[in-house]
Amino acid sequence: MALPSGPVTTSSEAEAALFDLVDVYDRAYEAAAAELSLSPAQACVLGRLDERRGMGALAEELGCDASNITQIVMRLEALGLVTREPNPRDRRARLVARTRRGDELNHRFATAFTFARTAVGRLSPDEQDQLTALLRKALG
Amino acid sequence: MALPSGPVTTSSEAEAALFDLVDVYDRAYEAAAAELSLSPAQACVLGRLDERRGMGALAEELGCDASNITQIVMRLEALGLVTREPNPRDRRARLVARTRRGDELNHRFATAFTFARTAVGRLSPDEQDQLTALLRKALG
DNA sequence: TATTGTTATACTCTATAACTATA
DNA sequence: TATAGTTATAGAGTATAACAATA
């Protein structure tokens, strides 16, 4: 179980609500991954492979070091969930792709991770639009 | 750098906005901790010690195993940021407390973690109240 | 010479199981 | 016997540095 990220000095109600949301979201994500015996990082990488892509692209997208991706992909490969195919255009590079089992597990994960869906579902369509607009504004 | 938790099947704009918020929040938290050479878990535990408390209370509050807290507190202690005092009421138990350096570093962390403050600051007072209400409703 | 990716290494987080000391 | 916390152990995430193969 991951530790929650806060609380810092939650000087306002809105900041506290943001913290609570992030805390519950992260815990739910981790729990959904654990149901499938995946680490959060493994579930995350698996979820990025709707299209196959290179190690470097994954690292940049996820904001971590390439050697980190190497390790995660290695474990996913050992689980039979992804393959590392040669890139015909550049023999240094590899293309990571989900296997059929990887597709299946990714789909099961999307089903198991109900938090965001459930949370949004508690709001009316108008409220959903309001929330989206407020979050977008807050994100700058 | 921690990997972002998604995207899952972000079937709506609101779900996508929630994901983006969580992603940016988590990255900002980690970056603020890294500025002070702390891990996110260390910054988190340090932030929970405005009042001193026992190992078990920390573990329950953070939703992780007690042995995990033992390790984190051990490292914080080695850094001179917390102490483990005997509990006069129960000689099995310990009370973890921030040192003066721990107080100082925690304060610097609260200053360095600007994300939630900045994000909320982009909204008017009315908008802040709306956001709070929507998030509370979404959290159920 | 620069880039893609891996390997080697080290540290942290995390849980489980077994243990000590105390209640 | 039950509880608070630690220790031992193992697997996973993460970054840095050094490296190989290719561009």
Describe the structure in your own words:
The structure is a homodimer of 140-residue chains. Chain A is mainly alpha-helical and 140 residues long. Chain A is built from 7 helices and 2 strands, in the order H-H-H-H-E-E-H-H-H. In chain A, strands 1-2 form a two-stranded antiparallel sheet. In chain A, helix 2 packs across helix 4 (66-78) and helix 3 packs across helix 4 (66-78). The two termini of chain A are 31 Å apart. The model of chain A has no long low-confidence stretch (mean pLDDT 95). The structure holds a DNA duplex (23 and 23 nucleotides).
Secondary structure elements and pairings:
The structure is a homodimer of 140-residue chains.
Chain A: H1 13-35, H2 40-47, H3 55-62, H4 66-78, E1 82-86, E2 94-98, H5 100-112, H6 115-121, H7 125-139
Antiparallel strand pairs in A: 1-2
Chain A binds a DNA duplex (23 and 23 nucleotides) through α2 and α4.
